[in-house]
Amino acid sequence: MNDINKSISKNLKQIRREKGLTLEGLSAGTEVSKSMLGEIERGTTNPTISVLWKIAEGLKVPLTSLFEDKRKELDHVKADRMRLMDDSNGCSIYSIFPYYDAHKSEMLNLVIRPGAVLSNSGHMNGIDEYIHVVRGQVKLTLDGETLLLKEGDSVRFKGSMPHEFTNPGRKEAVLLNVLHYR
After folding, report:
1. How does pLDDT run across 79-118, given as a tens digit for each residue?
2. C-beta separation of 175 from 96 below 8 A
3. Spatial separation of the C-alpha atoms in residues 23 and 37, rounded to whole Å
4. 167 pLDDT exceeds 70?
5. Beta strands in the chain (DSSP E)
6. Residue 54 sits in the same domain as residue 129
7. What is the pLDDT of residues 107-130, one digit of tens each?
8. Dihedral sign, CA of 6, 21, 39, 46?
9. pLDDT reading at 41 higher than 80
10. Please, are residues 116 and 133 in contact by the beta-carbon 8 Å criterion?
11. What does pLDDT average to over the chain?
């Protein structure tokens, strides 16, 4: 079992038990099968990011709480130590700072290759999402409106709204993404 699956396995089991849920109960609240949840807890499968989002939202916890070890009071994250959470469809999602309860937030690095699209049908209610374009440009489609965000631009929106980032440029777009949980 690789390190990330080991963390997901351990954290999912711990969070599920803390919330007093059985695998069957968690399955009912997440639309993820009981057998898939069992495989994830045993670390015998490599779940997709969309499955992990369903689980996190069903548990009402931040996504990164499934990935990360317990928090320290000081974190120094070097660029080569960011944890890759997903790398598919021309997009990479890295955890810079996982969810930290004292701050009710988490920070991600999103890398979107030219022509790629990163879509989200909306997070659970109570999340404010902040995006800062570090490099490149993206088109953000949000609630039927499209914004072109260029290098240095920032935006804040309700994370529960469906949103989509498209890289119309010729180079990678790098975004800093902060999710704040109210």
Report:
1. 887 888 888 999 999 988 877 776 788 899 999 999 999 9
2. no
3. 7
4. yes
5. 83-88, 91-100, 105-112, 117-120, 127-135, 137-142, 145-150, 154-158, 163-166, 173-181
6. no
7. 999 999 999 999 988 887 888 999
8. negative
9. yes
10. no
11. 88
On the CB side of 11, CA atoms within 13 Å amount to: 23
Contact 173, 133 (CB under 8 A): yes
Query: What's the total number of domains in the chain?
Result: 2
**Same domain (yes/no): 161, 105:** yes
User: Residue 132 is part of which domain span?
Assistant: 79-181
Q: Which residues partner with 130 through β-bridges?
A: 156, 178
Give burial (CB, 10 Å; 0-12/13-18/19+) of 158.
Answer: middle
CA angle 127, 98, 112 (to 5 degrees): 75
At which residue do the structure tokens 């490599």 appear?
46
Q: What are phi and psi of 57, to 5 degrees?
A: -70, -35
| Paired residues of 93 in beta bridges | 86, 110
Angle between helices 34-42 and 49-59 (to 10 degrees): 100
Name residue 86's amino acid. Answer: D
Cβ neighbors of 159 (< 8 A, separation 6 or more) are: 122, 123, 127, 128, 129, 179
Q: Determine if the pTM surpasses 0.85.
A: no
Does residue 74 form part of some domain? no
